[in-house]
Amino acid sequence: MPWKRRPFRSGTLARARNIADLRELALRRVPGLAFEYVEGGAEDESTLHGNRTAFEGLRLVPRTLVDTSRRQLGTTILGAPAAAPLVIAPTGLNNMLHPEGDLALARAAARRGIPFTLSSLSTTRLEEVAKRAGGRLWMQLYVLRDRAIARDIMQRAAAAGYEALVFTTDANVFGSREWDQRNFSAPGRPTLRAALDTLRHPRWLYNMMVRFGIPRFRNVESFLPPGKSSAVGGSTVLPGLFEANITWDDIAWIRQFWRGKLLIKGVLTAADAERALALGCDGIVLSNHGGRQLDYCVAAIEVLPEVVAAVRGRLPVVIDGGFRRGTDIVKALALGAEAVMLGRATLYGLGAGGEAGVARALEMLCTETDRVLGMLGCNSVSELEPAHVRRA
After folding, report:
1. Residues near 36 by Cβ (< 8 Å), separated by ≥ 6?
2. What's the CA gap between 368 and 346, in Å, rounded?
């Protein structure tokens, strides 16, 4: 019988070799209803796929005969030391993948020595994450129709010791994730097929329905109507809380309640980066929301060089969008990013094995990044420069 490559089918984390393997493992361990929420993109999913395609158009240029035996990934993110140039991105409903989703992500980040960003729509209270996980904590913020929600989150995050606020600006109009919507016959009401699929995952179903209960939007539940704070009920009211009236003027409003570091997430042009700088923001995150908002949108990695050129080192630039390999991370760092935010990559680890799965995902990416540095002839991320990257 001729030799044939076979896809990853192991059921153990130790056998996983890359983020794609963790994705396959997560796909088997959580029902499609939960996995599609993580996986799906907006409409035709062109932006979602374009985030990955953009990396394929960039080639690495190594330098040879360089002693790289002293390699290390340590760097500085927002003026403070980090063990690697990585940040875990804000994602909501993480407890749909694992009963301690937010805590598992935060703990793994703390142990790796990198920042973790908690979503406003997390299923764990921000105070509990600070108490039980520690580490460098950033808080993501949506400014919704009821401004009292944002004010409450900012004040609580400051009291809990969160280091930075990440103001998400690209969700003022709620995106349409059609593949995700197909799992529901009406908002909050799964189709028969989706409901039956959960029966194929008895451990997940036991955790959701018996042991821990259906996840709730813990940070905003006091502002939601009675009975609407769960992942099921909240999905029927939360989209209506997003309003298309946030502007640059809201930076001044946020500064009334937040004195810590402030990053603007959703920047994709040099002009917006310069405006964030002029308004005194402490950093920007180049992002198209993981392909979940505007379809046929540019990839963050495509605009990174022009944004870096515009801010000229006066403003830290963080980037997200489709990062799955150490080569992806190195390309962004070489083009001027200070750090890379990880969304789906660590969520695949979470679904595959909880905190151990997240730690495995971070270990994989750090190992790959370290290896790529050595092959390029670099001993640290600070030695990376645009000359290490060439467009195909």
Report:
1. 179, 180, 183
2. 15
Q: Which two tokens stand for residue 44?
A: 């035709």
Give the separation between CA 346 and CA 366, rounded to whole angstroms: 12
- Compute the distance between CA of residue 281 and CA of residue 266 in angstroms, rounded to an integer: 13
The domain spanning residue 135 has which CATH number? 3.20.20.70
Write the pLDDT tens digit of every residue in 33-53: 999 999 999 999 999 999 999
201 annotated active-site: no
Is 200 within the bounds of a domain? no
Domain contains 374: yes
**Token pair belonging to 126:** 């921000």
Alpha carbon distance 140, 162 (integer Å): 10
Structure tokens at 214: 């259906």
Beta strands in 322-370 (DSSP E): 339-342
Model confidence at 9, in pLDDT bands (50, 70, 90)? Answer: confident
pTM to 2 decimal places: 0.96
**How many structural domains comprise the chain?**
1
Residue 223 lies inside a defined structural domain of this protein: no
DSSP E strands: which ranges in 191-300? 261-267, 283-286
Tokens standing for residue 125: 């209270």
The H-or-E segment that residue 140 falls in is: strand 137-141
Structural domain range at position 377: 22-177+239-385
The label of the residue with tokens 């963790």 reads 22
